[in-house]
Structures
1.
Amino acid sequence: MFSKEAAKTKTNNSKSNSSGGPPTLNMISEGTRLTGDIHSDNDIRISGNVEGEARSKGKVILTSSGRVKGNIRAGDADIAGKLDGELFIEGKLVLRESAVIDGDIHTKTLLVEEGAQISGNCNMGVDNISASAKGPSELNSPNTSFKEGAA
């Protein structure tokens, strides 16, 4: 009924669908309160309240209704809500007009919309990402330091 060739094709297709599917997004919805750290290989979207660190190898999105009391460490970030903590972003950081940051910023690239508020220091460029800060590329190695060029 089935040939060996058809069985091989079916097996190969199932493997490619699981690895090539749409990106995964972790969501903390509005009205949700989370106490503790979030560590993810995928993007994180925060519309609720988080007390702890948000760490992602991908992008962290903090919506206008989102609040974080703790640090954010990510590859990229888009902030429209309130952050009481530091930002460690390896790539691009976007601060929307409703963003309120109470803490230092360490990023390679920064885009700030008119109206965004920053109370803290801003350090830009690859060399300015703190050497003691663990980058998102080292999520599974909590005792290592961030090194430029680490993959």
2.
Amino acid sequence: MKSALLALGMALGLAVAGCNSLVGNGTYELVENSTVKDATVVEDAPAALTDGVSPQDGGRGDATVSGHDAEAGGGEGADADAAPVCTPPSGTCTPPGGCQQPDGVYVCDGGAVVCVSAAVQNGTSCGGADSGMVCSDGGCVSCNAGADCSDPNACVTKAYACNTGAPVCAFVSNVPEGTACGGDAGFVCNDAGGCVACSAGSDCSVATSCAKQTIECSSGAAVCTPAGNKPDGTSCGTGLYCYGGTCSACTLNQACTPANPCHQGTVSACTGGVATCTDTGLAVTAGTSCGTNEVCSASGSCASCTAGLSCTPSSNACHIGSTSCATGASTCTDTGQSVPNGTSCGSGMACDNGSCFACTSGTACTPANA
């Protein structure tokens, strides 16, 4: 009898204990007809998945607890410490962040129900309009597409591209030909996007030409282009000089003969290679020839004068003289030679061996052998 009573009491205790089921973090809740039922509680899952589950423990429990009858007295049975089993709900879901496909599914991860899906294509915009963010292997990362990343000394423009999910400094276009590059003077960009040497403005003229030429780099290459004429007086060959773009023997400021040949002149211009002689008003040296049998006087006028004519020197009538124009006027120069003896050298005078003596022709005289 005593044994029967003990068995009955144990049965009643088990019946009472069977009215409780384990929920969440170990608390118990009365479940229908005192029978432990399987309960699924999914964190952040649709409300329908947690109907009939106590909101205790913050709505967590992302797992299914099945087949565990709790013992009376707070669940101190053999399975009281067993971990809950996770059972993900059915249906599709959309992961947050915008970098995964919208047709995701629920799975268990470390005992928690999570929504997973395939990543969208890398480079897809995320984070909202003008956020400067793109998807990269399922994550939303910063990437400012189109931002300039060019080297200021290079000949190409570049900008960030984000289609791979990461910022890549990509080629956009070549800069205009002739743009300075390289960071130093004397370099420009060519049509292929290369930085080449080109010293704009440097002289490239032909030495024997009077046309000036300089290097021009606007095309991206060194081109020798016309740049006017070389300065007047620039040498263009041996004894030749440039004047007005013409190479000739004319030399500025060189001595020349103006309209008055007995005045000094100077070359004041060489237009077209032809010298323009300007009269300075200064007389040339007296005796300078100014024409046939003409010489310049000391006053700067041109006078007749024939040099070399026979004349009688004023200093000795019995000597032979010769005209000279060295002074700018005709003068008789004594040559020192005697005229023939007997040449009259004055009234009643005759020359004898270069001297003038009194001698009257036809008068009586005594011969030497008398």
3.
Amino acid sequence: MSNKKIAHVSKKSKMIAATAFIVGAMVVGGGTIAHADSVPTTTPVMSALVSALAQRFNLSTTDIQSVVDQVMAQQRTTQAQRAQQTFSDRVAKAVSAGTITQAQATLIIAEEQSIQQTLSGLAGETTSARQTALTSLKQSVQEWATTNNIPQSVVARFLSVGPRGPHFRGGLGHPLTSSTS
């Protein structure tokens, strides 16, 4: 192939190459995808990567950032769906094993959805406000469990706020949420 053909690369081809590079980098660093909504796509490392790709391929940083944001949103949605399916499967397995009843499973699923909604609403809060809200949420879940005759061991096993405080099924200390929900 001549140098002339190599030197002439369309803008579309450059964008495809940049996107492939970013997706590859995200797959290699896939753990960050599990952070759900809490991982911005404008971290210093991502900003440097976007700038380097824009400069290398002579593209707009805005265009590349847009692609990064879109791919990250898709990955967060996929991760959240996978985690939700895993949760549902675990609850169904507990019903099949006789650990919980179907009625308890229905209550647990509804309560977990409520907890997740509450947790996702805490994202922009201060540390102090989050701690206060989580303490209140923990107390509320304990009362819910008592009212619904759900043992604390079941609460600890299935819900994001158990007897020892909040824990998160979304991975790496972050709630299971999706920016598209």
4.
Amino acid sequence: EVFGLRFSPDGKNLATASLDNTVRIWRRDGTPILQLEGHAGGVVNVAFNPDGTLLASASDDNTVKLWKPNGTLIQSFIGHQGWVEDVAFSPDGTFLASVGEDSTLRFWDTDGNVLHTFHQSFPILEVEFSPDGDHLAFAGVGNTLSVWNLELDRLLKDGCDVLSDYLQNDSTIAPADRHLCESVMQSK
């Protein structure tokens, strides 16, 4: 049973995620090319990086695996405590996001290191970056949808805009700290 599929960025091939613990690569016309084996449980979803040189798979064996499209297993990402439901590459391909039934959203570098784990109050089933990389959306059980702004420069400016009066006028702020937002505000 196929649970997920994605086209390669060039549109020539497809990758499928199957409950028989495999990832399969197919030509666009449906001709099988390759079968990737290495998961100990069903594969739920797959994602190509933006240039098509890497493929990630999410599995009910609680792992994400990173592959070369020729079938070489590069890395296993271990950290989820339940099924990994989805995986997505950032638009620049430098990191991945994975989500799962353990109610976590995890950011990984392509070497398999967890960059950060965010805990939610619901199992997360889908994750997607906006094409410009400025937003991340994830959805899960209970009709939940969250969209996070990842545009850090804008978030800093907005935060400093809110804090500027406080920093300048609150008597408990040390004089050296009154200028924390000046460089941020000047680049506004």
